[in-house]
Structure formats: C-alpha cells, structure tokens
Amino acid sequence: MRETNKKAIIYTRNSDVESFDKQSSSLTQEQVCRSYAAIHNLDIQSVHREQVSGSVDFTKRKIFSSMFNQMEKGSILLVSRMDRLGRNIKHTLDLLEVCKSKKIEIHSTELGHLNGEGLGRIIFLIMGVFAESERVMIAERSKATHNRRRKLGSYLGGKNTRFGFTLADDGKTYVENEEEQGILQRIFNLREDENMGFRQISSHIENEYNRRLHFSHINKLYHREKKNLITIN
C-alpha cells in the first residue's frame, strides 16, 4: 500500500522591504523549499511570505500567526534556513517546543527535521548559539555607529533636531543655529558664573529670548554642553 505524502507549508521571511517587494529572496527561498519537498515526498499545501525582522517574536508576526493557527497535527512547516524562523534563539526554541507539543514538524532545507530527536536538532542548537552571537554583535555595531555619528554631529533621524543646531540642506548634518547657540552660551554663563539654579535660568531665558524652556530641559542642555566641552565665544 502506497504511503500518503505528508502535507507541508512553506514559510519565507525577508527583513528588507525592497527584497520583499521584488520577491527575489522570497522566490529563492520557495524554490529551495520545493526542491527539498520533492526529494522528501512532501506535498506543498501553501506558501506564506512575510516581511518582518527576524528579531520579532513569532507570536507577534501577523502572517506567521495566521498560518500557524491553520496548521494541523502531523503537518510540516518548511523553511529554507533556520534563520527564516528568527534570529533570536530563545524565540526559535520556544517555537520548536510549541510545534513539538502540537505534533507539527519543522524542517529546514539545510538541517532537516529540527524538532525531532535526531542530528538535525543537535546541529540546530549549535548553530543557534552562533546566530544569537551574530545578532548581538550586529546590535553592538549599530549602537557604536549611532554613538559615533552623534559625537560627529550627524543627523540621526527623527522629527527633532539637536538644540543649538539646524539640519543642513543635505539632510544629513547639522549647522549651528545662531539664536539657540546664544541661548546655550547664556545658560552656561548663568550656571557657571552666577551659580544660578535651573528654575531661575528658565525664567531668565524666557524674559531675554522669549523662549520658554522647562528647567529640566535646561538641566539636560547644560550637562550636555559641559560633558562635550562645548563653549561658544
């Protein structure tokens, strides 16, 4: 009697919007999964594509959650690589255990059955450690770059620009704002030369420049200038 092929669902993930829109990486992932399915006699039931960061928990992914809720006992979730499931090893391990309890198999084309008891699971655990280490290093490099650009006075994005500066025409760097630089110098002088409290400084700035700055904001501006040793002549 011929054995019935197992049902499989393909899941592809891209974190890059452009690649997702062009479906280049997504199609490549699907093709690899279909080749794997053909070799292992799996019947592909559907393909689900999602554009989301690998650091997002699988329970918070809209497409993944919808797909997962429809999966039945004995079905297979197929991905091209284990990092398509996620780059956070804890989230991925949680997913493996949930699938195991629901009798749902997870396969990757590179490692095979991930939540079984075979070699695939062992290799997955080892590779997961390296994947998590890579994620941490990427985050640290991004933070270092952010801090370096901040020290260089580069624009870091967002609606608000740094007090004392105006965004240049190139949209990337700051140029000094003459009026706000004068306010910064006045704050510094009132604090350093006259030992004035920040509430008093707030009142002086409002009277002299017609600019209402909360004393807590003035506190932050003063310590920022002192820390960066910025003086205005």
Main CATH class of the largest domain: Alpha Beta
- The CATH superfamily of the largest domain bears the name Resolvase, N-terminal catalytic domain
Task: Report, as a whole number of angstroms, the end-to-end distance.
Answer: 92 Å
Main-sheet strand order equals 2-1-3-4-5
Unreliably modeled segments: 154-159
* Total beta strand runs: 7
The shape, in one word, is elongated
Could you characterize the architecture of this molecule?
The protein has helices at 17-22, 24-39, 62-69, 89-101, 119-151, 178-192, 198-209, 215-228; strands spanning 6-14, 42-51, 76-79, 105-108, 112-113, 165-167, 174-176. The chain has a 5-stranded mixed beta sheet, sandwiched between helices. A two-stranded antiparallel sheet has the order 6-7. It folds into 2 domains: 6-137, Rossmann fold (3-Layer(aba) Sandwich); 165-228, no CATH class. The protein is elongated. The N and C termini lie far apart (92 Å). Helix 7 (198-209) crosses helix 8 (215-228). It contains 8 helices and 7 strands. The chain is 50% helix and 15% strand. The protein is of the alpha/beta class and 233 residues long. Residues 154-159 have low confidence and may be disordered.
Compact overview of the structure:
This protein has helices at 17-22, 24-39, 62-69, 89-101, 119-151, 178-192, 198-209, 215-228; strands spanning 6-14, 42-51, 76-79, 105-108, 112-113, 165-167, 174-176.
Secondary structure layout:
Layout: E1 6-14, H1 17-22, H2 24-39, E2 42-51, H3 62-69, E3 76-79, H4 89-101, E4 105-108, E5 112-113, H5 119-151, E6 165-167, E7 174-176, H6 178-192, H7 198-209, H8 215-228
Helix pairs in contact: 6-7, 6-8, 7-8
